[in-house]
Amino acid sequence: MSEQGNDLNLNALFIGDKAENGQIYKALLNELVDEHLGWRQNYMPQDMPIITPEEKSSESFKNTVNKMEDVLSEISSRMRSHSVPWHTAGRYWGHMNSETLMPSLLAYNFAMLWNGNNVAYESSPATSQMEEEVGHEFAHLMSYKNGWGHIVADGSLANLEGLWYARNIKSLPLAMKEVTPELVSGKSEWELLNMSTKEIMDLLESVPDKIDDIKAASARSGKNLAKLGKWLVPQTKHYSWLKAADIIGIGLDQVIPVPVDHNYRLDVNELEKIVRQLAAEQTPILGVVGVVGSTEEGAIDPIDKMAALRDVLAKDGIYFYLHVDAAYGGYGRAIFLDENNDFIPFENLKDVHFEKGVFTENKNYILEEVYNAYRAIEEAESVTIDPHKMGYVPYSAGGIVIQDIRMRDVISYFATYVFEKGADIPALLGAYILEGSKAGATAASVWAAHHVLPLNVAGYGKLMGASIEGSHRFFNFLNNLSFKVGDKEIEVHPLTYPDFNMVDYVFKEKGNDDLEAMNKLNHDVYDYSSYVKGSIYGNEFLTSHTDFAIPDYGDSPLQFVNQLGFSDAEWRRVEKITVLRASVMTPYMNKAENFEEYAEKIKVALQEKLEKIYAEKLVHSAH
Amino acid sequence: MSEQGNDLNLNALFIGDKAENGQIYKALLNELVDEHLGWRQNYMPQDMPIITPEEKSSESFKNTVNKMEDVLSEISSRMRSHSVPWHTAGRYWGHMNSETLMPSLLAYNFAMLWNGNNVAYESSPATSQMEEEVGHEFAHLMSYKNGWGHIVADGSLANLEGLWYARNIKSLPLAMKEVTPELVSGKSEWELLNMSTKEIMDLLESVPDKIDDIKAASARSGKNLAKLGKWLVPQTKHYSWLKAADIIGIGLDQVIPVPVDHNYRLDVNELEKIVRQLAAEQTPILGVVGVVGSTEEGAIDPIDKMAALRDVLAKDGIYFYLHVDAAYGGYGRAIFLDENNDFIPFENLKDVHFEKGVFTENKNYILEEVYNAYRAIEEAESVTIDPHKMGYVPYSAGGIVIQDIRMRDVISYFATYVFEKGADIPALLGAYILEGSKAGATAASVWAAHHVLPLNVAGYGKLMGASIEGSHRFFNFLNNLSFKVGDKEIEVHPLTYPDFNMVDYVFKEKGNDDLEAMNKLNHDVYDYSSYVKGSIYGNEFLTSHTDFAIPDYGDSPLQFVNQLGFSDAEWRRVEKITVLRASVMTPYMNKAENFEEYAEKIKVALQEKLEKIYAEKLVHSAH
Question: Which of A388, A419, A435 is the last residue of a domain?
C-alpha cells in the first residue's frame, strides 16, 4: 500500500474514537465561529449594538442565561446517558451509523449560523450554489452525461420522489394523446404506456408551447393513475417503498414483490417471468426498483442484468422505468471511478485499490457481479443516494439523482421556468423537488465532504474501502468463532459473503435442531447487546438484529437454514429466522492490528453475554 | 411593562445583531463540545486510542488537515460573500427569516456530535424522547386534549402529511363497507363519505382485529381515490398545496381555490357556496385548508367561522376534514395561552400582554377576529407548525400536530404496533410518519427552544410579541412615508393592517395612474434592495417582493388598487400588482427607540435607491 504524503489520511477526518482529534475540531470550530462573529460585528459598522452592556448586567438577562444553561445541562445529561457510541472503533457492530466526517460537522455548524434556506436562491445564495454543485457531483458519480441531482431530507423521501418521477413521466403519453394527439398518433394505449423515458422526454421537448398543457393532463391531474401499472420491488423491500406507493396514490395493491435469491439479491429470472406475465395480461409495468445495499443484508441487486432485461423486453414493446435505491450503497460507486471519472476495468481493480490504499491488503474484496451491478447504475433513470449513510455526513442528508436533467420539468411547478441569471440554478428549487424549506447548512456539510474526499477511488473510495475491508475482517472472524458455555457448544455462522459492508450472522447451539430456540438465542444476544438490557455506554459489544420471515422473504433463507442443519419442515413450522446484523461502517477496522485488538475483546464480551443467557435459561427451567 | 428579574430577557437568547452575545455563545459551545469529547474519551477507558501521536505527526495526516482547512476556508469565504444578513436588527425587511435562538443552535451543534437518527428509538434514545415531548408540547399549544405531533423536515411535507391523513381517513368508511359491512350498514355512499373523523376513529377502534384489513382496503391500496372529492384551499394557496395534491394522487383537478376577501383571508361565505354547490352535485369534500399566516400576506383565515360552518353543514349531512396550515403562524398561538395553558379571555388580553412584557406599549395589537381564529384551531383535525419559522429554530424543523392520537394508526405501517416499554414512544417512528431517517439534533434543537421559552404568554408569547410589535411600528412608519425625487413625489402605502407580523407595501408615484409603471417601480425597488444589484452585505435596506395576479387572486387586490387611485379598467388591463413584502421577524424592533434609530436609516437608504431608479429612467428615456 502506498503511503505518500499526498495521500488522504482518513484518520485526520474524524474526531476519533477517543477524541484524538478533539483539539483540532475545537480549534477549527472556534476559528469558524470567530469568522462568523466578525462578519456580524462588521456588518454596517455604523449601527450601534442593540444589546447594551447595561442590559447584559441586568438581573433578567443573567437569569435568562442561567435558564438557558439549565436547559443545556439537561440536554447534555440526557445525551450522555442515552446515546449510542457510534464513534467507537470496534465495539459497535449494528445499525448503519458511525462517527461522521469532521469537515461536514464543522461546515454544518458554521453554515447554520447564517440559517440559509435552500428552497430559494434568494434566501441562500452561497449554499444554493453548493447544493447545485453537489447535485452535479452526484450525477458524475453515477456517470450520467446530462444528469442532475439535489439533496433530500432522507432516503424514504428520495424514493418517494423517484416514484413521483416515474408516475408522472409514465402518464405523459396518455396526456399527449389528450392534448396533442398528433404527437403520438397511431399508438395504442399499450404502446403509449410502454414508451421509454427518453422517447417521452424528446417528444415533450419538441413541443415547448404545449408542455404546460401536457403536464396539466398528466398524472398530476389525478387522472389515469389506475392505468399506469405495477411497481416492482425486490422481496427485501424496505417499508419506505410501501409508504411511497401509498402516498403517491398508485397504492399498495400495485406493488409486486420480486423474489430474491439466497444471496438476497433480486432474481432477474423471476423478474422477467413477472413482467412477461403482466404483459400477457396487458398490465403495464410502471417501474422496477433495484436495491444497491439492502437495509437488512447489504445485498446488491444485479442492476446490469435488470438493465439487460430491459433491452430484451424493448424488442417486445415492453418498457419499465428503473429506479436504483442506493440510499445505502450509492457512495460505494466511488470505489470504481478513477481520478478522471472513468470506470476502472475490473481486471485492474485489485491493483488500483492496493496502490491507492483503498485496502491495506492486496486481496480481491469486490465480487465481479457487484462490480457489474455498480457499473450499470448509469442506465437507471434515477437513483437514491444518502450522504448520511455511506457519505459519513451527519443526519439529515439524503439525495436523489436523475439521468436526464429534462426530467425535472415533468414534476416542476410554475409555467415560467425562472433560473438564476448566468447559471442553471433554479431561482426556486422548491418548485422542482418534493420538499420546501431546507437547511442550507446541509448543503455546506455535504459539499465539504465531497471537496475533502472527491467521489472517486482516491477520495471516498478510500473511506468505502476501510469500511468494506473491516466488514471482511468481521466476516472471517465470525466464520471461525465458537463458544463453550457449560457443556454447550455455540457456533457463529455468517449469513452470506458480504456484497458490500454488511455482515448478518447467527449464534447456533450445536446439536440443537429447534429453529425457534435458535431464534430465541439470537434475540437474547441482541437484548444483551443493546439498550434493552440497560446502559448502552457500559455495554462492551453492541449489535442490531432483524427477522427474515416467510411472508416477506419466501424461501430465500432456506438454503442458509438448511446449512445450519434445520430441516425444510422445521423452517415451515417456525416460518422465520432471527439474525444479528452488523453494518460495518467504522473506518478503523480495516487495519489487521486494530481489528485483532478488538476481536479479542468482542470474544470476551460475547462469552459473558452467552453465560448470562444460559444462566437465565437454567433459572427459568428450574421454576 | 414589568421588568422583574424573573422575566425572560429575549436579548439573552440571540447571538445578537453585533454578536453582542458572541462570547456567551462561544463559552457555552466549548463547554458542550468538551462534554462530548470527555464522553468519547471516557468510553471504555481500557481501549487505547486508534489514532496515535505518531500518525498525527505524519505527512499524510498534516496534509489532510491542511486540505480540510482549505475546504473550510472556501466555505467561509463563500458564506461571508453570499449570505443574507438576517441577523441585522433593522435592515432586513423581507423573507420570513431572522437570527435564531442561541439555545437551539447550541443544542443542535451538541446533539449532532452523537448523530442520532430519530427514525427509531434504538438509534437515538435521548432525542427520540425529546421529539415525543415536543410532539405533546405542540398538542398542548393547540389545546388538543388527546393529540400528538412530531417534527417534520418542513412545512410542505407537513402539509403533504396532513393531506395523507385526510385522504386515508376519508377512505376508511368505504373500506369498512368492503371489509366489515356490518359496521356501516344502512349508510349510503354519500353518508360514508360524510362521516366525521371522530365517528370513523370510534368505529375503527371498535374492531381491533379488523383494523389491518380495513386499512389495507383504504386509499392506501390505490382504490377509491377518485371518489373522495375535492380539496379546498384559499386562493392565496401556497404552491406546496398544489404539489401535495399532485403527489398524494388525488390530483390538481380536485383542488378548488376558495376566494379570499380584500384582507386576503378566506371568505367563508364563498366557502359555504362552493361546498353547498358541490354537495348538490353529490361531490364530497375531502377537506378544507385554513391558513394561519399566509406566505405572502401573513393573513389569518377565519378558522372559527370555518369550524362553525362545519357544524352547520353537519346538520345537512355534510362533513369535511379541516387542516390548518399554520406553518408560519402556529407559534403565534402561544400569545393567547396563560401559564396554565388556558386560553386568555379576549377582554383581558391587552392587560395581560402589557403586564407580561409581551408588548412594550399598552395597546391593542391583536384583532378580535384574529384571536377567534387562533382559538378555533383546536377544532381542526391537524395543524402544520414550523419551528424554523416563528419558532426561531434553525432550518430544517417543521412540524405537524394531530387532534386525535388514534389518527396515527391510520397511516402507520406494520401490523404489530411496537412501542417502547413503559412509554408511548413508537419504537420505529418512521412507520408512523412520512419521512424515514431524521436528525436527532433537530429534536434537541426544538426541545431546547421550548424549554427555555415555554409555549405560552410568558415564553414564546414574548418573542411573538416582539415581532408583532415591530411589524406595527414598520406599518405605521410606512403609512406616513413619502419621498421627493426631482419633481416627483413618491408615497408609500401598506397593503393591510397586519393580522400577524407581515407588512406588504407599495411605492407609488403621485399622479401617475399607470399601474404597470407602479409595478415596474416596485420591482426596481426590490432589485435595489436584494442580491440582484450586487453585494447583499453592503446593502443598507433589504426587502422581498411578490405579485398578486388575477389568475391566482381574482379581484381581492382591487379594493387596494382602487384606493391607490387606479381604475377597474386599469386593473383589468395590467392584471397584477407587484408589492414589496416584509415578514418582520427581527426581535429587536419592538422598542420605540430601536425602531426610530433604524427608521431614519431606512429613509435615507430608500431615498438613495429611488434616486438611482429615477436617474436610470432618465438615461433610458434619453436613449
Answer: A435
Res A129: pLDDT: 97
Q: Which parts of chain B register pLDDT below 70?
A: 1-6, 415-423, 622-623
Collapsed DSSP state (helix, strand, coil) of residue A266: strand
For residues A422 and A496, membership in a common domain is answered with no
For an interface test with A, give the residue of B51, B121, B130 to mutate (most A CBs within 10 A): B51
Examine residue B188 and state whether it is found in any structural domain, yes or no.
Answer: yes
CA distance B514 to A566: 87
Nearest to B225 among A63, A122, A225 (CB): A225
Q: Which domain holds residue A479?
A: 465-622
Q: Express each pLDDT in A334-377 by its tens digit.
A: 999 999 999 999 999 999 999 999 999 999 999 999 999 999 99
The confidence band for A167, taking pLDDT boundaries of 50, 70 and 90, is very high
Length of chain B equals 623
Dist CA B600 CA A132 (whole Å): 39
* A365 is annotated as an active-site residue: no
Instruction: Count up the domains in chain B and report the number.
Output: 1
| pLDDT one-digit tens code per residue, B116-173 | 999 999 999 999 999 999 999 999 999 999 999 999 999 999 999 999 999 999 999 9
Burial per residue of B277-308, b for 16 or more beta-carbon CB atoms within 10 angstroms, e otherwise: ebbeeebbbbbbbbbbbbbbbbbbbbbbbbbe
Interface predicted TM-score (ipTM): 0.97
Query: A414 and A480 in one domain?
Result: no
Distance CA A150, CA A399 (A): 6
Q: Which of A435, A450, A479 is the last residue of a domain?
A: A435
For the segment A79-85, the average pLDDT, to the nearest whole number, is: 96
Whether A246 and A207 share a structural domain: yes
* Radius of gyration from C-alpha coordinates of chain B: 27
User: Mutating which of A160, A178, A396 best tests the B interface, going by the most B Cβ atoms within 10 A?
Assistant: A396
Q: What is the CATH number of the domain that holds B377?
A: 3.40.640.10
